[in-house]
Amino acid sequence: MAQPPNVRAEALIEALPFIQKFRGQLFVIKYGGSAMEDEQVVERFLRDVVFLEAVGINPVVIHGGGKAITSKMRDAGLKPRFVNGLRVTDEQSICIVEDVLDNEINPAIVKVMHGFGGKAVGIKGKDVLIGKKLPPQTEGKSTKIDMGFVGEVIDVQTDIIAKAIAAESVPVISPLARDASGHALNINADIAAGTVAGRLRAAKFIYLSDVPGIMRDPTDKESLIPSVNRAEIEQLREDEIITGGMIPKVESALHALAEGVEKVHFIDGRTPHSLLLEIFTNTGVGTEIVA
Ligand SMILES: Nc1ncnc2c1ncn2[C@@H]1O[C@H](COP(=O)(O)OP(=O)(O)O)[C@@H](O)[C@H]1O
Ligand SMILES: CC(=O)N[C@@H](CCC(=O)OP(=O)(O)O)C(=O)O
């Protein structure tokens, strides 16, 4: 049932101080994982991003696509393998990774945003992120695994991103880098986003995922941790409360904070308008990481 007009107007007025505070500021948003699986959820999120841009905030979106890559690899008869949350990526797999991220997911996001009347520009990670191959990773106690074409970001060509923002377009960036010889490297999207947020000194860095935030028990919603600092994160890792896909997230969040990002938030991409609630209301949503 529609709310009375004055209640609806109050929601806009509640947003006023936040719009005034955040206009002109740069927010990096990592969008990935299961929160990307449902078309309705994707559209709702992207409309929220268009809204941010329309009220003068400068969002930069870094997207993932791990699930789609896994499914395409399986179709090709390849068996996905992860070490410490990172996909082992051989020559055949990197072609699939590039195809899924740059030719499918990235243009689809831009198209939906255009459909909502937003301005967005797709940027291939390879065009802005310079990387180098990761050394072999330790699995278990001592086994070293060659990760293939998996990299870390050593430089960001921020001028290309800045140009898009100056043109009032939302940069939508895929998590790939190029190495010194121009070869594509697969970058975990959380790590790519954390590096970009740090280099751009984002006012906020927001992760949208498929959990309410960081939890003491990922199966119990009530165990959500609303605010956490570096020392507490280290303890949560030691106690193996933060595991799996949450590890690259907290690591890149801490990296971004060390680089001067003001605030990092983990919110649930499945909750309708969690992004707008986090930014434009006093309601605390998800987990905030403070320096
Ligand atoms: N303490 C924790 N709190 C919340 N989620 C956690 C925690 N530890 C591990 N996880 C896992 O991390 C996952 C999120 O990481 P991931 O699946 O890589 O997200 P995305 O694909 O959105 O980047 C959650 O679905 C959850 O299973
Ligand atoms: C090296 C590495 O693991 N790269 C990731 C890149 C995509 C990603 O991170 O996507 P999500 O954010 O949706 O998980 C991968 O191949 O799955």
From TrEMBL:
CC per GO annotation: cytoplasm
TM regions (residue ranges): none
Alphabetical list of InterPro entries matching this protein: AceGlu_kinase-like_sf, AcgluKinase_fam, ArgB, Asp/Glu/Uridylate_kinase, Glu/AcGlu_kinase, NAGK-C
One Pfam assignment: AA_kinase
Kinase listed as a keyword: yes
The reaction(s) this protein catalyses: N-acetyl-L-glutamate + ATP = N-acetyl-L-glutamyl 5-phosphate + ADP
E.C. code: 2.7.2.8
Leading EC class: transferase
Subcellular location: Cytoplasm
One GO biological process term: L-arginine biosynthetic process via ornithine
Pathway(s) annotated for this protein in UniProt: Amino-acid biosynthesis; L-arginine biosynthesis; N(2)-acetyl-L-ornithine from L-glutamate: step 2/4
GO molecular function, one term: acetylglutamate kinase activity
Keywords: Amino-acid biosynthesis, Arginine biosynthesis, ATP-binding, Cytoplasm, Kinase, Nucleotide-binding, Transferase
Main location: cytoplasm
Database matches in NCBIfam families: argB
Function recorded in the entry: Catalyzes the ATP-dependent phosphorylation of N-acetyl-L-glutamate.
Protein name: Acetylglutamate kinase
